[in-house]
User: Fold these one by one.
Assistant:
Number 1:
Amino acid sequence: MRGTSRVATRALLAVAVTGALLVSGLSGPASSAEEQVAGDHGHGAAQKHRSHGPDGIALDRQDLVAAPFAADAEVPWASPEYDGAAYTSDRPDVAGRAGLAMVHAIYVYAREMSSRFPTFGAMFQADMRDASRLLQTQYGRGIRFDERPDTRGGGRPTVVDVTVVHSRYRSAQLGAANQFDVVAGELAADGRFSNPDKKYVVFLDAPSQYCGQGELWQDTRRNAGNASEQRTIAIVYRPYDPNTATTGGFCRGRTLRHELGHNLGALQNVAPHAFDGAHCADSAEDTMCYTFANTPDTGAAVFDYGNDDYWDPIAAGGTTKLPWWTVNLSRFVCPPGGDCSRPNIPEF
Ligand SMILES: [Zn+2]
């Protein structure tokens, strides 16, 4: 029953998004909806809904406006910045970080295709660094990615550990309307990606109509048992021409940070600017907001503009806390001071 309802929801979303893009491509976000999962899974009275619909190309404004918002800026990347190693297993965690919650990256390519990881591995590195950098710059606390030593040695900094997966599915299957479930199912059945202390973010090298998609739990409780603290999946999609040299066809800019934001619990539907229960609408520069034609450009990329929806004021130099789950509480976020080899100190 649950499976049927999910398929139906996704199919309807695909139609809605396609229609919106054909009609204007300028106004309004891609359609997005919460998929509600009944039952409370033993967490008392807290209500939880898992997953939200795919984030459409409207999330990535690069093709839609002459001057993209700062939040959509695509960071430069170059192959020599990455060691080029391609591993098919999760490498040993960097010394001192073992056992800490972290985000592990996966590159998935289709059964009949050749891996493009040698070409775009450096771009994925750049985008993950960029996803963490805004939190580091704004709050002094990044996202803890799963990292490994650079195989070139020489005192180089660690690199993000990306596992390369050759899917059992062909491009047509990975690019179908149910692509999130196809990929999440394949990874769930793969013993390499079952660590309960890791969140998994996928770069899916297959066609898509969307920019990305991530699981979002609705659970407002401010404690370590919050549902957002568990293993989740996020996917960055490839809706553009794969021959585009600077992107490989993937959505970049705010996309990865946005999908990880969902995984970390942004936004709870009680947040004041949660117009659709999962996204805000108070700043076009806000990672988790959709950019309507009339959404204010507040000037610079931010992670929770105004600290009123998903990042506590007390974690931004203020003194107050929001009365629902916020991302600064996450064990996947680095502690104040930014030392990611130490656990977070959540402001419950
Ligand atoms: Zn979203």
Number 2:
Amino acid sequence: MHPVEPSLRHKLLAWLLGPLLILLVLDTAFTYWTSVSFSNLAHDRSLHEIAREVALHVKPNGSGPRLDLSPAAEKILLVDQDDRVFYKVTTAGGAVIGGDPQVPAPLKLRPDSDKPAFYGGTLHGEPVRVVAARMPFGEGAASGTVIVQVAETLNKRNRLARDILASVVVPQLILIVMATLAVYMGVSRGLGPLARLERAVSHRSHLDLSPIDVRDVPGEVRPLVDEVNELMLRLGKTLDFQNRFIADAAHQLKTPVAGLKTQIELALREPEPERARHSLAQLYVSADRLSRLVRQLLTLARNEPGAMDALQLKALDLNAFALEISMEWAPQAIKHGVDLGFEGGGAVIISAEPDRLRELINNLIDNAVRYSRQGGRVTVAVAQAADGQGQLSISDDGPSIPPEERTRIFERFHRLLGGHTEGSGLGLAIVSEIASLHGARITLEEDLDGVGNTFSVIFPPRAAEG
Ligand SMILES: Nc1ncnc2c1ncn2[C@@H]1O[C@H](COP(=O)(O)OP(=O)(O)OP(=O)(O)O)[C@@H](O)[C@H]1O
Ligand SMILES: [Mg+2]
């Protein structure tokens, strides 16, 4: 079983929506991340500001620094609507001179740098964000540095992050849903003509071989539909051909079969053995004629235009082949009082299927011999043209075929009026079909000697064969 190819709609949706959704998710993450880090930066700055304010209250005191921060000032400095703020002041030597000793110490703070360090930690069981900075105090000989740390709980930051999340993600989500809808609708609309095409084809009767309307068909599928229409046209022709053939065959067989039946009835009723024998001999002739007709019909069916695929061409010497067949015809020619001659030269190699080519030559010689007048000449000639084309000509001394009939005699069952010769009008139709299977061309001209006709079959040069 062939793996089922996913539908075009699914492929389009996957290719459009997949990357679009990934882009939107990345965009959301990036926007969220940058907004949160900017707001953290602002909060970190104000934390650093508080640390600087605290440092302003460190005063030199004899041997070391002292924190001079009144409870009132401390309250003003540390009070915050949402968060609890803690601080800790440590001397360079590590002694805590003020604030909450439990504020987590920085991992490392470079002794020569006054750049603040920001870090996270836990204080009294709550996560906090801490700033630690080295701050100068005093002047002249009494000056020095202390380490000031300020810690703040995360309520404000967390709320802001949530707010940002809501304001960024919700619109992005709405955007995602709308983009999905737009893509889905776009794809559906875009594929609409294909769906209509499918309906138009699936609702068709199997007898309707009219071309599919291409007006509404998108450019991409147009070549495909054109090909299908082309195929239907060919199919229609083949069906027509076969229907016509069946009708013709039935019509042509009906009369001789009915005749045969009547003749048998008459023969059965005949009491006299001698006359019954005579009837039987007539019956034999009729049956022979019927069998020839059936054979011709089968030959026609075998050589219909669709038989091209079954054709097995091989290189063949037309000169030798035509000579051999002409010789087989000699007794028949003598019987008709016709002088059958052959004109040929060297080998003329063509591509052909021997059985079909024999059928073609037989039919042409048969006509020439049958329609030539008593004592007439029939000449079979083979020649090679300069461009490699092989040519077979058969000239006879029969009645000239009028120009207006020269195309029609190749039609099935078409015979010239006024003839007395037996025939069903299929010979030249068979010749024409076999010639076209071989890519050969037939011409019919008045014979060069002014009496009779010359039928020529011109085979394509061998190199032109596929
Ligand atoms: N060489 C010829 N000279 C004169 N008339 C010809 C010649 N060949 C064909 N015709 C005419 O063309 C008609 C069609 O020929 P075609 O071979 O198709 O059928 P047919 O000979 O009548 O019957 P059959 O099916 O037995 O061949 C003939 O009936 C005849 O009138
Ligand atoms: Mg014939």
